[in-house]
Design goal:
The complex is a heterodimer of chains A (269) and B (372).
Chain A lengths: L3 E6 L7 H14 L4 E5 L7 H5 L9 H5 L5 H4 E3 L6 E4 L12 H14 L2 E5 L6 H8 L3 E6 L3 H16 L5 E9 L1 H5 L6 H8 L3 E6 L3 H8 L10 H13 L15 H14 L1
Parallel strand pairs in A: 1-5, 1-6, 2-4, 2-5, 6-7, 7-8
Antiparallel strand pairs in A: 3-4
Chain B lengths: L5 E5 L6 H14 L6 E5 L7 H13 L3 E6 L3 H9 L3 E3 L4 H6 L3 H6 L13 H4 L1 H4 L2 H15 L3 H6 L4 H4 L6 E3 L6 H5 L9 H13 L16 E2 L1 E2 L6 H8 L2 H6 L10 E4 L8 E4 L2 E5 L7 E4 L3 E7 L2 E4 L9 E6 L3 E4 L2 E4 L18 E6 L2 E6 L4
Parallel strand pairs in B: 1-2, 2-3, 3-4, 6-16, 7-18, 8-10, 9-11, 10-12, 11-13, 12-14, 13-15
Antiparallel strand pairs in B: 5-9, 14-17, 15-16, 17-18
Helix pairs in contact in B: 1-2
Chain lengths: 269, 372
């Protein structure tokens, strides 16, 4: 059975596409799936840095496309999990080095051997986006609870709907701050879902650990204490078809609220 | 303190894993070496991670600690490095023959890399040395402007344009290898350096492809290591130097065509190519690439990829004031930076330890400048 090709996209930059790709990829591999991550952000590659594989890259996706090496040679194995591979982007070229058909071809080859092919899409809706989406049959739209990110996500969903290959797209709300939502300073997850009228695949809370893990070159899902890591693992489980309830990211502020919450939980369960 | 007490167990003659474990446990049982650090000699034996872990736990169960593994097998080296155990290539035979008696073996001390904590005092120097690098650069610029050698050369009958020609370099974001050369790799001629480069690359490209993706290729790039002990080196060298002999030797002059001088910082995504030697006065940031047929010298921090001797010349060298390169490539030898040794941004320009990368027995090693 061929695996599925999932593109991770957002339109707006800086909402966490690459972090999401690295973490979902690692989480899926830790769950026992064979996963390959493709970085299509040619010229501004970062995925290798997040996985800590920077120093192992010899061949890149451009070398594969221009037939300087075999596809298998360009796959960089993860340090910890042998189920996880990375196909890195070239740093010294730009987006026009690869075209949609070539990337589609690569996705189709990898689909035969891997359970999940995750494509990390660059920001924007130009050539890079068109390339990344070409081979995908599923999409995850990453957004944050801000108007600018939501507007861009809306545009991306529109473009995805007009694409033939993409059968399904789901929304991932990133960098959520429960405290701000409570004080009505930030849009709630329900509002975001309502505006975009789209299925939700997960909610990731804002987490300091993300910054340290990026600098260390180790995805946050390997950190058991991290809340964001737990949320990403839940997203990965949902991708595999499991039904997982949304993670409770609500942080009670006062003692009274904590007590209330404790009892309301008791009453429910 | 038993930090300095090492006990060498030679398992080089063993062929199977069972034999290795049998002999090791025999050695640990018969000789009481509680609290000592064990040095394992494993010649070319391949051991996977679980086997190494079980050996490690076996050694700990006898109250010893596994300190160093000597092996030539590259796969074992890679695994051992992931386990944070020190790896060493076997010491030369003549040295090994010296250690006959037990006392001598016990006194054997393999060299060790300086630990991370020991480098902490570098931070204290930060403020003093931060401006150091830029100040030097400015002085160099002024010096370059003030010296005009062309008129002197004309008097001496040398045409500067021919003999001291600085070739055009290109910092371009688009680099294409000649396609026809890739296909006709077999008909290459040694005189044409560009073709020779392609020969090496196409060899790698046409490697046998296994049908199964399951064993997606293990990264075959070796790790570059320091060839010297930073603590002991200086003391030893004073005794060895023969001043009369060194004075009479003539300087070695490179016979490469030309040298390119670049007076700027190389940034991510930029490629610098040269048909001769390259001298960069400035830093090379991660993501940048230098490719030269000759040697590469970086007067600053080298953090990108450097490929010297692209024509397949493994005698080429890479020098830098601070070596932090993601990958070093000399001729057809590739090597990557050891994991976890990336120098954080703050420390980059604080202190310089000039080093030179050379190929020794097919492996890229870092030496101090002028160390043999």
């Amino acid at each position: 059975m061929a695996g599925s090709v999932i593109v991770i996209t957002s339109g707006k930059g800086g909402v966490g596409k690459t972090t999401t790709s690295a973490n979902i990829g690692t989480a899926l591999a830790n769950l026992g799936n064979k996963v390959v991550l493709i970085d299509t952000d040619i010229g501004l590659r970062n995925l290798d840095l997040l996985l800590g594989l920077e120093n192992r890259i010899v061949y890149t996706i451009v070398d594969v496309v221009e037939e300087r090496c075999k596809l298998k040679q360009a796959l960089v194995k993860d340090k910890k999990n042998p189920n996880l591979c990375l196909l890195a982007a070239a740093q010294t070229r730009d987006k026009s080095a690869v075209d949609s058909d070539q990337l589609k071809n690569i996705c189709e080859q990898l689909k035969e051997e891997f359970d999940y092919v995750l494509v990390d899409c660059p920001a924007g809706i130009e050539q890079g986006f068109q390339n990344a989406v070409a081979g995908a049959n599923e999409a995850i739209v990453v957004t944050t609870p801000e108007m600018s990110a939501i507007r861009d996500a809306d545009r991306i969903i529109g473009l995805l709907e007009s694409k033939e290959g993409v059968e399904r797209y789901r929304l991932l709300v990133n960098r959520v701050r429960p405290k701000l939502i409570k004080s009505n300073d930030m849009m709630g997850v329900d509002d975001v879902v309502e505006i975009l009228s789209c299925d939700l695949i997960g909610v990731i809370p804002e987490d300091m650990n993300i910054i340290t893990s990026t600098n260390k070159g180790e995805p946050v899902v390997n950190d058991e204490k991290s809340l964001a890591g737990a949320a990403y693992i839940n997203v990965a489980r949902r991708i595999t078809g499991e039904e997982v309830p949304l993670l409770d990211i609500d942080v009670p502020t006062t003692l009274m609220e904590k007590i209330k919450k404790f009892f309301s939980k008791k009453a429910q369960g | 303190m038993y930090d300095n007490e090492y006990f060498v167990v030679d398992l080089g003659n063993c062929t199977t894993t069972g034999e290795i474990i049998n002999n090791l446990s025999l050695a640990l049982e018969t000789l009481n070496h509680t609290g000592k650090s064990i040095v394992l000699k494993l010649n070319d034996n391949y051991l996977n991670q679980s086997q190494l872990l079980s050996i490690q736990s076996l050694i700990t169960s006898y109250g010893c600690s596994l300190d160093t593994i000597e092996t030539t097998n590259p796969e074992t080296i890679a695994i051992v490095e992931n386990m944070n155990i020190f790896v060493q290539k076997p010491i030369e035979k003549r040295v090994a023959d010296k250690y006959d008696t037990q006392e001598e073996i016990n006194s054997f001390q393999p060299f060790s890399m300086p630990k991370a904590e020991e480098k902490k005092d570098i931070i204290a120097l930060k403020d003093v040395n931060n401006l150091h690098f830029e100040a030097d650069l400015d002085a160099l610029k002024r010096q370059q402007e003030s010296i005009d050698i062309s008129s002197d050369l004309k008097e001496a009958g040398i045409n500067p344009k021919e003999d001291f020609h600085t070739i055009d370099y290109q910092v371009s974001s688009q680099y294409t290898r000649p396609q026809e050369v890739l296909n006709e790799a077999d008909n290459f001629s040694k005189s044409d350096t560009a073709v020779f480069v392609q020969q090496n690359m196409s060899k790698a490209a046409t490697m046998e492809l296994e049908k199964e993706f399951e064993n997606a290729e293990k990264n075959s790039i070796g790790v570059y290591k320091k060839a010297y002990d930073e603590n002991n080196f200086q003391e030893d060298s004073w005794e060895e130097v023969d001043f009369y002999e060194t004075a009479t030797t003539s300087p070695v002059i490179s016979d490469s065509k030309s040298t390119t001088y670049v007076n700027q910082t190389l940034r991510s995504g930029q490629i610098l190519e040269s048909e001769g030697n390259v001298v960069i006065i400035g830093d090379c940031h991660p993501g940048s690439e230098i490719r030269a047929i000759g040697d590469i010298t970086v007067w600053g921090v080298l953090s990108g990829i450097a490929h010297a001797g692209m024509s397949g010349n493994t005698n080429a060298k890479i020098r830098a004031l601070k070596m932090n390169a993601v990958q070093l490539r000399i001729g057809s030898c590739y090597s990557r930076r050891p994991d976890g040794t990336n120098i954080p941004y703050i420390l980059r320009s604080s202190i310089f330890t000039p080093e030179e990368a050379r190929v020794v027995d097919g492996e890229i090693m870092l030496f101090k400048i002028n160390q043999n």
